[in-house]
Amino acid sequence: MSELATSYFREECRSDRGSNPIIGESPALKSVLDKVECVASTDATVLVLGETGTGKELIAHAIHNLSSRRERPFIKLNCAAIPFDLLESELFGHEKGAFTGAIAQKIGRFEMADKGTLFLDEIGDIPLGLQPKLLRVLQEMEFERVGSGQTHKLDVRLVAATHRNLEDMVKRNEFRSDLYYRLNVFPVELPSLRERREDILPLMRHFVDMYGCRLRKIIEHIPPETVSSFVSYSWPGNIRELQNLVERAVILSNEGVLHNPLHKAEVRPIASFSETLRDSERALLVETLESVGWVIAGANGAAAKMGLARTTLLSKMKRLSISKRQRFGISNGPEPTAAPHLTLA
């Protein structure tokens, strides 16, 4: 990944713009970000695919912010949230008197996004009757407002997204094949949270920090059983569900310890769980040690910070193969960079 892209993605992770900043170091996520970097500098249409809650809008933002259009508008529209009889007007605008209730001229989303990027979320929900007009705009880069015969030229980069299988919809005659092929120039498929479990702990930490700040609660400790539950859970709602559960957990937390909002019945064992939990525990220990300069004992040492006896911490470090040499880059793997104040005992 280039220096520009790496810098941008790191800044995304530090910011609180949007509900789910891009966070994670899993191979599945890195593969997606590589594709984003590859396509962002072009004007190609991008189709972002993935389950609900996987962060499709964030990827659209990333494509825009890494492109030459970054100083131009980023306009978005959720096609599933607009009634059919209003969607055409939302997309293309209308003239005064075009229909009952059109008391003034309205600018559509395509026109708003001129010279910039238009993000159409849930593109699979666009009605068949409107799809030919959308196709024409994408092919010709021109449109007419509803109730007007005047043609307007456009320069818009389109990013579309859906959780639906558009190929299956084409086979069932629920989506036009020509529009599908026009949208599917550069597909980017987002992994579910189940496919990037190594990112669950960094996401937990991020949302704990975010909601701790918003709710004025200090969370100093994530119990290992809570990490275990989150890593083992199936996450049908993906990152959005994780975010909501962390918010609930922070609200219910007392004495700086993160509450576990998941019931045992909701958690299912996974094959690689023990290895994943070990990695999570190791990451938090190293972060805490780094935050205190690898001082173990004393009032300001890592053991006191984690509420552990010095011998217990040393035992954990030995079991997890953690040594001070990591501070100088001698390690079997990458070191974490997340917030150091959360601890796992």
How would you characterize this protein structure?
This protein has 345 residues and is of the alpha/beta class. Helices cover 42% and strands 8% of the residues. The chain has 14 helices and 7 strands. The strands form 2 sheets. Strands 2-3-6-1-7 form a 5-stranded parallel sheet. Strands 4-5 form a two-stranded antiparallel sheet. A hairpin with an 8-residue loop joins strand 4 and strand 5 (152-153). Helix 2 packs across helix 3, helix 9 (200-214) crosses helix 11 (238-252) and helix 10 packs across helix 12 (273-291). The protein is elongated and about 80 Å long. The model is unreliable at 1-20 and 326-341 (pLDDT under 50).
Put simply, the count of helices is: 14
Overall mean pLDDT = 84
CATH architecture label of the largest domain: 3-Layer(aba) Sandwich
Taking the sheet with the most strands, its summary is: 5 strands, parallel
Number of domains: 2
Strand content: 5-15%
The CATH class of the largest domain is identified as Alpha Beta
Give the neighbour order of strands across the main sheet: 2-3-6-1-7
Unreliable spans:
1-20, 326-341
The beta-strand count equals: 7
In whole angstroms, the N-to-C terminal distance is: 35 Å
Find the CATH superfamily of the largest domain: P-loop containing nucleotide triphosphate hydrolases
The global form is elongated
Helix content: 40-55%
Order of helices and strands: HHEHEHHEHEEEHHEHHHHHH
Over the alpha carbons, how many angstroms does the gyration radius reach? 24 Å
CATH fold name of the largest domain: Rossmann fold
